[in-house]
Automatic annotation (TrEMBL):
Residues 296-430, 449-589 form the Cytochrome c domain. InterPro entries: Cyt_c-like_dom, Cyt_c-like_dom_sf, Cytochrome_c_Peroxidase/MauG, Di-haem_cyt_c_peroxidsae, Imelysin_sf. It comes from Flavobacterium pectinovorum. Keywords: Heme, Iron, Metal-binding, Oxidoreductase, Peroxidase, Signal. GO terms for cellular component: cell envelope. It holds the Pfam family CCP_MauG. It comes from the Bacteria. Residues 1-20 form the signal peptide. Gene3D superfamilies: Cytochrome c-like domain, M75 peptidase, HXXE motif. One of its GO terms (molecular function) is metal ion binding. It is found in: Cell envelope. This is Cytochrome-c peroxidase.
Amino acid sequence: MKLKHFILLFLSLCLFFSCKENKVSQTTIKQDILVDLSKLNNEIEKFINLADHNKSQKEILEQFKKSRLAYKKTEWAIEYFIPETARFMNGPALDEMELEENRSFEPHGFQVMEELIYPEYGIENKENLIRELNIFKSNIKQVQSTFEVITISNNYVLDAVQQNVYRIIALGITGFDSPVLQSSIPETSQSLIEIPVIFEKINSNSKILADLKKLTLKAQKYCVDNNNFNAFNRVFFITEYLNPISKKIKFFQQQENIKIVTKNSPLKPSIATLFDKDAFDVNGFVLSKDYNFTADKATLGEKLFYDKSLSKNNDRSCASCHHPEKAFTDGLKTNLSLTGINLARNTPTLTYASLQNAQFWDMRQLDLEKQSIDVIQNKDEMHGSMESIHAKILLDQDYIKLFQKAFPKTTKPEAWQIQNAIASYVRSLNSFDSRFDLYMRGEKNALNNEEIEGMNLFMGKAKCATCHFTPLFNGTVPPNYSKTEHEVIGTPAEANGKKLSPDSGRYLYNKMPQLIGAFKTPTVRNIAITAPYMHNGVFKTLEEVVDFYNKGGGKGLGYEVENQTLPFDELKLNKKEEKALVAFMKTLTDKRYQ
């Protein structure tokens, strides 16, 4: 009888857990998102209650962390499907600007709350904190309403999950969204939880699912065991866990015959990892399909790039200021005018310029086509005329043949095609074959220990990667890589000087106080070849640049920079760390310059 009772009990338990498992599996991905949003809302309500009852900073801080962890569980969906609202839930604590309409919006969300409660929380911040929490609740409601009515298909789910892995690499583990508290590593663990759960909803019998679960659990355990922000080995974490997870996601997609999401984006949806050689599409920033890159356009553009007849006096070409051997810079502190006078700004590299949606230091042009005509017609640079250049080309049979090959649909060269051809040549200057790239693709001997330490510093303690985003290392924001940012860092007029640079940057074209001294965040790729540095060429060496940032930029040096976006507290890098940081940046040099 005892054995019979045991068997009955065992079968009952099996039936119970089987029913329970079936019940879980019957919920959809969308239903799970809504449940997680309700849990997030509950955490925010608890947060409001604690603040309203004047609880201690310790209790306030713990609830903040719980709330952020609840958000991280839903982040993959909110950021992907409702990015406009996500910006005001967990975006930077900086004004959101609409430059076309010359207006700005104050920031809201977790990063604003973080600054209100840490490192000190005083009762004087109570009203603002509760206000932020109520705004956050409203945003949750808006997100819930949106998810209740939209359809979420598997191909968009997979794309969202894959983008979230890229978000973890480029934003999560760098501390981008936890700049003060530096709680990024535990939050990364939470962000990974949903991956196998989501894939189980799509196909619980998939052979890949078991591997994905193991990888995810190992990655989470690594975060738990190594939760010190500054000591966290990001290089190991990416290469051993995040890249393999990313590959498994792509393999799962192929095995399940789930279609790739078609979209016009600089980041190709077909890639297996963020570090694939062909991960980025230079057509992501073109005006229309007519402007798409082709090798024939680049060949024509190269000829135009070196043609001095584009200038008024036939004595200067694009290559006069962008020397190929210097990664298309000129090695001067600032550019020289046609008459030999020093201009205000340093000549930036053209390598990887095509993977930004803003050109020039002040970001006054949005694409490479407008950039080329701006330079050609500038009286101090080339003082040319597009009408004159067009007329010359129409009389040149060699050019006509090249134009007909590059633009087969037109019978004779058109003015816009001149700009497009030059821009296409610039779009051909992205190699993605540095020692860093090789290492991230599995060549373990490509970097030495000091360089690996430098990368970990770049993406962690030194905070470089919170502005120079991996793997472009410029200001084009992941994981969509569709918007390029500026920063106000307080660059001095002279090295070791006591005056701030008088150049007002973006403010020249958009009269908003937040933009005084704002400049585009350039790429750090090929930086070993492109000295001197900053918009005014003030620093001759990378060591000087690192020292400037280590001291907190202009404000850290004592300059009056009220709108500085760069954190102005000292990084507290020691000499060994500064040296490692420089060593890493030198690994970003393309093969042709090594």
